[in-house]
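look at this record:
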Amino acid sequence: MMTDKFSTINSTLSPNELGRLIQQKYELSDNTECSIFRLAMNHLYIVHDDEMKYVFRVYTYNWRTKLEIEEELRLLLHLKETNRQVAYPIADKLSEYIQEIEVPEGKRFGVLFSYAKGTKTAKFSHQASFLIGEALAKVHQSTEYFELNRIFYNSHNLLQISVLRTKKFFDKNINEIEFLEKLSAFLTPKIDNIDKQKMRYGSVHLDVWFDNLHIDDEKEITFFDFDFCGNGYLCFDISYFLFQLLSTNLNEEEYQVKAESFLKGYETVTEISEEEKKFLPFACLAIMTYYISIQCDRFEYWTNIFLNEDHLKRIIGNLKRWIAYNKIEIE
């Protein structure tokens, strides 16, 4: 009979026990309830305390350092203080924002966030698209020049390192890997030779799309999940949103209406420079190359059963659709 205990790499915390911990740490009522919402890159729990609702994020093991999380929270508190609509961290009774939780694999971190008003939907109207652009521009007004002690997104980590990591994971998908290598070689000078003086720079979300925002009655947008925040060109967020908008709208006429509405909403708040507009078709391609590698790199910690050869081909298909739509000729 085997009695040795096996080590773990990604345990799931009991929602009941976690609920008791949250109730005690944050001095919530006896009616506090905690349930699993999503077990993905991070583990998310919904916390109810009578009419109040929160999200508790448990970062997967060895995903983010405490300093990286502190910087993410510093950005969110800065956005809250400047009246931007974001889900913000909540301090416990000792004024601490980060909980350290000992689990079988080691120490993991947890943070309680406010719950974003509204609902999530991929099928939003062009009017909502306008509001998203407007809200994102206001966020960028607060994040320009706001530097984080986190990753600086550049051609090296978005492209060169990313392709190597993906290549190691998908060692048999020759056609897709060759495409990513060719794409990386094409995009690298686009990023490296950009006129930096004409590009706004600061803290970026890097994952702005329908899955990370709530729309409240077609009136207000609230952003959340700043897990990938870092330093970069602000138009990274604009380009990525447009890419995801095209990916979720197969009707390109509908996409065009929503894209134009989004950009119009953005520019009612702040102007997008001509240099930024020229860069928009390329920025999202670099970001997606990076995200493919992240999925590969964190495969063991994320129960992403969809991460297979067909998934890679599907993503590459979306990249090629964007390239064709924007009439990009890769040399």
Summary: The longest helix spans residues 274-297. The mean pLDDT is 94. The first strand starts at residue 33 and ends at 39. Residues 206 and 228 are 6 Å apart (CA to CA).
